[in-house]
Amino acid sequence: MGDALTITGLDVRVANPPLAVPHATAGGLVATYPMVLLDLRTRAGITGCAYVFTYTLLAAPALARLLHDLSPLVIDQPCAPLAIESMLRKRFRLLGSHGFTAMAMAAIDMAAWDVVCKASGKPLYAQLGGTRRASRAYAPVGLSGVDGSVREARAGAAAGFTGVKAKIGYPSVEDDIAVLRAIRDAVGPDITLMADYNQAHDVPEAMRRCAALDSLGLAWIEEPTIAEDFNGHAQIKAAVQTPIQAGENWWGPLEFRKALDAGASDLLMPDVMKIGGITSWLKISALAEVHGMPLSNHLFAEVSAHLMSVTPTAGWFEWCDWPVPVLNQAVEVRDGMVWPSDKPGIGIEWDEAAIARFAIE
């Protein structure tokens, strides 16, 4: 479509839908899903849709303002995701492409890919050269104590998920073990069980706790210490038998390369927002393939379902339905498997009435 795919504007909004089940973690309670919504408009009349998640509502207006202020950099430019990503990384070279800058870049990148796919009439997975392929998914279990964790794990298993991931980081490792054993007893031996510390401990305590969990047969222990401590994670990895999972808080392909060089984890989990978008995912997926590292997604089910379909070392899919209240249609889940949308684009369509209800001015 040539010049018709020139970008003409960015429309930015903030919404804050509630979670049906508040999700407790070692880092705090997630009770709402503060989102910055982006509509990237083009001269052809094709609009690309994307959203990012700011964890706290305090950050959402600032990120929305940053996206608005970035408009002059992309307006009148071709909607070409690779070129846009390269341009923005150069513009942010001195500031750095972490934090808000990475999140803003991700929103623009995802929306630009949505435009390109809609223009070609292809779903994202097909635009990237793949086929429609489902991903086996696990259900989330919050830091909800024994009774609450068992209830949430049973609900996940009843919904057809073949894995559950439990938040841990209780006052003692004995508490962690009690919760994980209770979940195992509740869901049985055929459900895969993972655990997530959400960076709760320093390295010595993380080593002690992870070693104590080795006998439980977990598929992985996630982020036992501060995410950017690659050497610390490597020490933990060397000291325990259970695979170490990390990556949701690593900012972009270079951090993944550094983590791989340090031997920081056995498994990789990029967050498509924090890494800078779809374009960065493709780079990290290539790194994972050449290192033989299983790769799982973090959140963002709509776009992640496509990306996992084209990831050679795709592992488990993290399923969370938190953005569903503002979407016209949720991602398809059947028998514990997540399927990417087969519509042109990513498959994000706004429920405008819901957005109006949850909008933050």
Can you put this structure into words, describing what you see?
The protein is α/β, with parallel strands linked by helices and 361 residues long. It is 39% helix and 19% strand. It has 12 helices and 14 strands. A hairpin with a 4-residue loop joins strand 4 and strand 5 (47-53). Helix 5 packs parallel to helix 6 and helix 9 packs parallel to helix 10. The protein is globular and about 60 Å long.
Summarize it:
This protein is of the alpha/beta class and 361 residues long. The protein is built from twelve helices and 14 strands.
Instruction: Name the CATH architecture of the largest domain.
Output: Alpha-Beta Barrel
CATH superfamily of the largest domain: Enolase-like C-terminal domain
CATH topology name of the largest domain: TIM Barrel
- Low-pLDDT stretches: none
Mean pLDDT: 97
Distance between the termini: 35 Å
Structural class: alpha/beta
Work out the number of β strands. 14
Order of helices and strands: EEEEEHHHHEHEHEHEHEHEHHEEEH
Evaluate the radius of gyration. Answer: 20 Å
- Strand content is 15-25%
